[in-house]
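> tool_call: predict_assembly(chains=two)
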Amino acid sequence: MSDKKTESKNEKYREVAYYPGCALEGSGHAYNRSTKALGKKLGLKLKEVDNWNCCGAMEVKNIDPKLQTYLSSRVMSIAANKMKMDVVMAPCNGCYHNLKKAEYDLKNDEKSKQVVDRLSKKAGHETYQAGQVETIHALDWVKDTIGEEGLKERVKNSLAGIKIANYYGCMYTRPRHIFPEKDSGPGSESTSRPHFMDDLLDAAGAENVDFPLKTACCGGAHTLSDSDTSTRLVANILQTAEAAGAEVIATECPTCHSGLEMHQIRANRTLGIKTNVKIIYFTQLLGMAMGLKPKEVGLHENVSDSFDFVKQKGLA
Amino acid sequence: MTSLIDIGVRLDALIAGPPAPADAGELLVLGEQALEQWVIARGKQPTQDKREGFRILALHRQGAEKDPSFNACRETCRELVYHYNLLTLQPEHPESGQRARMMGWVVNHLYLFISGKMETEQLGEFCCASKPLRETVDAEAKAQ
């Protein structure tokens, strides 16, 4: 373990191994683009994990949880042993969750350790040992390096006048036992009422509304096999956000984001429920607040069209 | 026992209202009734116990036994309790009307989550809950 482990989070997170995951190369590319652009703007360094693989997502985990543990451990092994990094930053809730779960399993389950060791040897790379890296989310990354005060100093286009409902989805905080750093006193993230995204957007001038479905299920995992349930759940989230006064739902997960965007259209077509709330990644909102242009944060890559809205709000 | 359909119909009417602060008790009960349906469908008797002073939290816990994916509605249940407390402890609060509206949407989310879960594959092939179902199907196919 290097000396970096004893550094403050502020310093330690300034240069991190970046694990975008599959979604950020496809449907969530806007999140990838905006995360990188925001990092650059804030002077934070991202070193993409070499030859990274799938984290095991929901599909592998469902069939063979230990294989998922191995797949996630390989990403962490490359970051730790090959790249000599101490921190892996995963912006996708699914990846973040799976790396955390793998870390937990490798600390607490002997059988998982054996399986990971066997598969790592077979694949020809060093076995990841629990504790070699720390996995963080993009929210931790910005919050613990730049923080609210730092963001306030850097705001070029305030988000003032924009009412936002912050939607965290389910995998950012569940299950609680794989996130030991959360619920750990003042300043830490809450698993029941997360607030990091609220804090960051508030610092950029936004008005956060009181939104009671921050961590509610959007049916994301069942969007293909049971689209109707997903559409109904998303429609309820969108309607609740509007009833709470929100003009924008800020997201921090590509699966949630795509689900909200696509089922917003589907809810209109199949259920006749029309909502106008915009769905924008928090990295896009912060990027524009820091002076980046909408295209630089990939607004054109979102399914929903927010260009007129951001222009109206003075962000473009 | 109130059926899921009846719960849905009543919720639609309440939300269209919109709900008033005085509806807090009924909204909480509708949440409990939706959970009862889930518990019964899994072959259990809905508990009458309370957890942290609320039956809805005990019912959620009962519903999540051996089914971790059901925890996806844990915070929704807690939000219901939170809104119920706000509305009953501060009924004259200037935000009471909005709080009641929000409570209506939250209980609707719980209802939609549970009804969706029950619709799919009878007891819900949902998220990581699908494995036991698939195992049962595989075992039956093998036995034939």
